[in-house]
Amino acid sequence: MFHLILYQPEIPPNTGNVIRLCANVGAELHLVHPLGFNMDERALRRAGLDYREFVTVREHADLATCLDALPRSRVFALTTKGRRSFFDARFMPGDAFMLGPETRGLPASVLSELAPEQVLRLPMQPDNRSLNMANAAAVVLYEAWRQLGFEGSV
Asked: Among 22, 82, 118, 121, which one is most buried in terms of CB atoms within 10 A?
């Protein structure tokens, strides 16, 4: 129903948690290289538990290759630099949500390729840097799914 793009993720347990999240909400996960870990790392497997078999995880050499694989998807970037609140957007099946690396977020070069209405932020308290990437992904996917009436859930 949705696509989640992790642009150059760095921390294996975060990606493992996102694998589990995607399995539970029915989202396809896209990992854009370089990754800060090996997909066989124990921390990744432990965090993802046995959910890996229930989610499609696609690896892409770079962002252009990833986006080429999603020609019909609207792509939204989640960043603290966004001016538009994520909660003001209306989502549709097939939308893709992109999050950046844990230590630095999405680079300006990636954000500048998107229209301003595609660059979204999650509300936070002033002077805080960011949310954990896996937590931000959960907020984003569940809100988008909620907007669709939790279609396909039990």
From this structure: 22
Taking Cα atoms as reference points, which of 25, 63, 61, 56 lies closest to residue 147? 25
In a domain, 154, yes or no: no
Please say whether the dihedral angle defined by the alpha carbons of residues 122, 76, 59 and 50, taken in this order, is positive or negative: positive
Q: Over the stretch 111-133, which tens digit does the pLDDT of each residue have?
A: 999 999 999 999 989 888 888 99
Number of domains in the chain: 1
Question: pLDDT by residue (tens digit) across 53-101?
Answer: 889 999 999 999 999 999 999 999 999 989 999 999 999 999 999 999 9
**Domain span holding position 107:** 3-147
Domain membership of residue 86 (yes or no) is yes
Dihedral sign (CA 107, 131, 71, 73): negative
